[in-house]
Amino acid sequence: MSVDGELTIQPAAPAAPGPEAPAAIRVEDLHKAFRIPTQRVDSLKERAVHPFASREYRELHALDGVSFEIRQGEFFGIVGRNGSGKSTLLKLLASIYRADAGRIQIAGRLAPFIELGVGFNQELTARENVLLNGVMMGLTPKEVRERQDAVIDFAELHDFADLKLKNYSSGMLVRLAFSVMLEADADVLLIDEVLAVGDASFQQKCADAFHQMKIEGKTIVLVTHDMNAVEEYCHRALLLADGKVQFIGDPAEAGREYLKLNFEAGGVSPTGLGGDGSDGARLLECTVVDGSGSEATGVESGEDIRVRTEVELQRETASAVHVGFVVTNADGLGIFEFGELMNPEEQAEPFPAGRRFALTARIENRLTPGRYFIHVGVTSADGISAYAENVATFVVFGGPKTNGIVSPGVEFEVESNGGCS
Amino acid sequence: MSSPARPVAELREVQGPSALGGGARRFFDLLWLISVTEFRRVYFGTVLGYLWSLIRPLMLFGVLLFVFTQVFRVGKEQVEHYAVMLLLGIVLYTFFQEATSSAVTSVVAQEGVVRKTQFPRLVIPLATVVTAAFNLMLNLIVVFVFVLAFGVSPAWTWLLFPVALVFLFIGTAGVSMALSALYVRFRDTAIIWIVVSQVLLYLTPILYPVNAFESSTHARLLEHLLMINPLAVIFTQVRVWILHEPGAPTAVAAAGGWLGLLPAAIIYFGVCFYGVWFFNREAPRIAEAL
């Protein structure tokens, strides 16, 4: 069992179904492109006035030959960056879009939950909405009526069952929506980011519900970019990038691939570091430290960031060695870089192999609260290169919550004149 | 721990969204449920409830009755029960107008549902038509009270009235489907339709009887032309069946024989087939176009 690594007290989830388990969803060579008109004609008048106006389209390939298979009883994650095509894939699976080419096969009834409470009518009571939503999800009105009370009780809304939804608090709405979703009792559940809503206690309820479903052996497809959720719940995960399957398999591995994609997309690959791995140098240490020199995980807003790094040369070199750093935020966006030259000319002889440099950088902290990552690169003119991605991370905390990723010091000079006295 | 308790289901092909998607059973369940809840919401949600929906056609009726009997004086010689004909016409036309005009924007208004759930798209415009039909049924009860009060005696031809209602319902549904799908692409459909439905009101013998042109030299021609409008055919025939006046021409007579009804039939069935075909063609792409 590859999931549930932590020692939390939870009922044991069944192990991932083996390859012999029957397929619940089979997708073969799926293609979907959107045609984006360069000039949109959206009135009959325009169409009548310019009947032969050029209708040029830009094709956007959201999915480009995606194939995979999900086994029955599997908790399957679909991850990808924004724009990778995961929402499109979800909507194709849910029969909201139609594929251009390829096949989708699904065993049994599928209930999509693309958003909690879609189709709720504010003007109707909870009871009526439960009925309507149940039928929308494919139950017969009779089946829904039998379950109606259970749904409302689960949502703890018994006293408000005949109140119109417009008078509900948002918390009550979320509870009702989630309750309806659980009651759908579909063979395959398709869930998009619903974990991200609600307060802490509701999130716990979601988590419990997912564990329960997993124990019951339902097939669940979770589409998200929350890698923690994927690693916690999923047996397997699929990573989409630019409409293609980038990786499929172990969720932890998918998570690493996903982070890597994020960093690459952030454009933070240090320049001059050709190839992967290291050549001629080794990074021994890179940690964020506090003022007393001990390792720290967080830096208070406004306090300097201290990064201690130790690099060892593995071969002799007569040229200057550059140690460079890039700091990115959690989205993989590069924020700033800095570096230092180690110059052998200062000591009039080449650096021997095994020479170590320990350097501590002190950086003025202009970052807004959030999580940041440090990437290190070591280069020299004669071909030494070592590159370590994502070697250290730190959290900036405290300070006022502001927009943006940096809060530079600002001084104003105000001149006021004009007007009459 | 526990093995999946569910029976092994067969893999089935997923076809993507469609007008009817999800089986006929679910389609009709949804159509019925949505129509009933919508009807209940509108008519039992307010204090005066249903009365509001009756007041509108009755007010219009009152004003028109005054204008056409006191100001323009539509000849008594052509219609024995002008008031009844007017009321019946207004109530039936109100159904057509109410259903189609709310259907135009319906699919776009239900954007959330269309974009985020698996939903037979055709339910949306049809539900507005069914809701309007419920309303029509209630209004017709009131109309028949008036019919009897104005001294029209019941006749066996009243039994044919449902036939006219079925034709009206199907035609309205066809127009609604076409309009709602058109509106997704062309947002000026709503404005154009307001104008067109106004024009249609005057091209249908509601305010005037079909034989109102007796004095004109082109009386026959005008009647024939009027019978190109399928609504005019239905309304003319309703008048014949309900009021059963000896002088009132049937739709066939007004059109100058069965052949004269051919254009109307072509338009009627053309619109219905176009509505179904066009909606069906657009349905898979509606979610993307929104």
Key attributes of the depicted protein:
heterodimer; A: 421 residues; alpha/beta; Rossmann fold; Coagulation Factor XIII, Chain A, domain 1; six-stranded mixed beta sheet; five-stranded mixed beta sheet; 8 helices; 33% strand; globular; disordered N terminus; B: 290 residues; mainly alpha; 1% strand
Describe it for me?
The complex is a heterodimer of chains A (about 425) and B (about 290). Chain A is of the alpha/beta class. Chain A has helices at about 45-50, 85-95, 125-135, 140-155, 170-185, 200-215, 225-235, 250-265; strands at about 25-35, 55-70, 75-80, 100-105, 110-115, 190, 220-225, 235-240, 245-250, 280-290, 300, 305-315, 320-330, 335-340, 355-365, 370-380, 385-395. Chain A folds into two domains: about 25-265, P-loop containing nucleotide triphosphate hydrolases (Rossmann fold), CATH 3.40.50; about 280-395, Coagulation Factor XIII, Chain A, domain 1 (Distorted Sandwich), CATH 2.70.50.60. In chain A, α4 packs across α5 (about 170-185). The longest helix of chain A has 16 residues, at about 200-215. In chain A, about 35% of the residues are buried. Chain B is an all-alpha fold. Chain B has eleven helices and one strand, in the order βααααααααααα. The radius of gyration of chain B is 22 Å and the shape is globular. Classes of the chains: A alpha/beta (about 425), B mainly alpha (about 290). At the A-B interface, β1, α1, α2, β4 and α3 of A face β1, α1, α4 and α11 of B.
Please write out the topology.
The complex is a heterodimer of chains A (421) and B (290).
Chain A: E1 23-37, H1 44-49, E2 57-71, E3 75-80, H2 86-93, E4 101-107, E5 110-113, H3 126-136, H4 141-154, H5 170-183, E6 188-192, H6 200-215, E7 219-224, H7 227-233, E8 236-241, E9 244-249, H8 251-265, E10 281-289, E11 298-300, E12 305-313, E13 321-329, E14 334-342, E15 356-363, E16 370-380, E17 385-397
Parallel strand pairs in A: 3-7, 3-8, 5-6, 6-7, 11-17
Antiparallel strand pairs in A: 1-2, 1-4, 8-9, 10-12, 12-15, 13-14, 13-16, 16-17
Helix pairs in contact in A: 3-4, 4-5, 7-8
Chain B: E1 11-13, H1 24-44, H2 50-71, H3 82-109, H4 111-116, H5 123-149, H6 161-185, H7 189-202, H8 219-226, H9 230-243, H10 251-254, H11 262-289
